[in-house]
Structures are given as C-alpha cells and as structure tokens.
Amino acid sequence: MIIRTFHPWNVSYQQAVTIQEELRNRIVLDLPFPTPNYVAGVDVSTSKTLSIGWAAVVVLSFPELRVVEQRWAEGTITFPYIPGLLSFREIPLVCKAIEQLSIEPDVFLCDGQGLAHPRRMGIATHLGVIINKPTVGCAKSRLIGTHEEVGSKKGAYTPLMDKKEVIGAVLRTRQGVKPVFVSPGYGISLKVARTLVLSCVTKYRIPEPIRAAHNLVTLLRNSREAGQNHTLYSCS
Asked: What is the pTM for the complete model shown?
C-alpha cells in the first residue's frame, strides 16, 4: 500500500492547522464502494507515564468479521495532546503499522472523527487522504456539532449537524446503550459509512474492527508499562 507524503509531522500548532486546511481540498467522498472483503480497525493508545504510543491495525474478513491479520507499531510520541490535532500525534504510528500489512484492507474504521471536525480533518479523513483508501470515523464522543435525540432501538440514528451542514450521524449500535458518532473520512459517503459501521457491530457498542484494535493496543500498553516484552504477543 502506498502512503503518500504531503507534509512533515513535527510541526507547530499553527503549521498543523494550516496543513489541515490545505488537505481539506483533497477530500473526496461518494466514490463507488463495492462490498468489502476486508475491513480494518485502527486505534492508538499512549502511555500515561512514558512518552510512548502504540498503534494497531487489525484486519477482519467481511461479513464474517473474523480476524485475519493484526499489526502494531510502538514509538515515541512528540506532538502534544491537542483536541482537533490528534492526527499529528497518532498517524505516524498508524502508518508504521499499515506498512507491515500483507493483506490490503478495502476500508479502514478509525477510533476517532472523520468529517466531524472543525476543519473536516479528523484522524479518519487525514489518514484516508494519505493512504488514498476509504476511511470511516467512529467515535465514542462528540467533538463538534449538534443533534436531536436518537431513537432507543439498534440502528436508530440522527444527523450530526454543524450549522446547516450534515457532518455525520449519531448511531445507536445497541438498544439502551449510548450511541456512537459516525462520520465519513475519505472515499465513502455518510450513508455507506453508517451502514458499514452497523454491519460490523455484534454484541458490543463498538464495531468489531475497532474493538479488536483497541484490545490489542491496550494489551501492548499494559504489558509495556508492566515491564513485559512485546514479543510475547504475535503481531501477525
């Protein structure tokens, strides 16, 4: 998979904002999206005591949702935690994990925002622009936007609005459980993104690809902070 380089990652706050505004012109949505064979989940975790982070990319077959490959990367985190600029903190590690894949996913589900971002450049969108693959943002909390109350049944949703623009959907993935915030990242429409996320949900609130990636980075972080060796856990 080709990872395109449009900018450096070690930049100032204002440079990062400018980069996001420039990359916004490269966003493409509503491309033809055939039924995928492989869906990847992406998640990143950082240490509370060390300047270290872990990124995991877990590939699942679709629609079976069976794990077929998992890759991870560890590295030093240098960019500060700034809401709205998390892609500069996390994507360099994500790309290192993606580069190891032997199976090329048809779409990536990211734990975070896509278009539901002040500059329409959440981590899912930023990643999609770089790898030129369809991406979807699926977040547990809202970054921006307003919405009406969501129906209580699984599959219920309501538009997430930023003024008069629809930037995502607030989707109920389990009855009686808090909804998730879905937004298209790159190369995919909101309708398809919402349907895909729901198709990847089993008995948990979070879609399986992201849940698998989250479990892996949590395991890596906990083992590292406990002084254990990562080689105990296979990355393929």
From this structure: 0.93
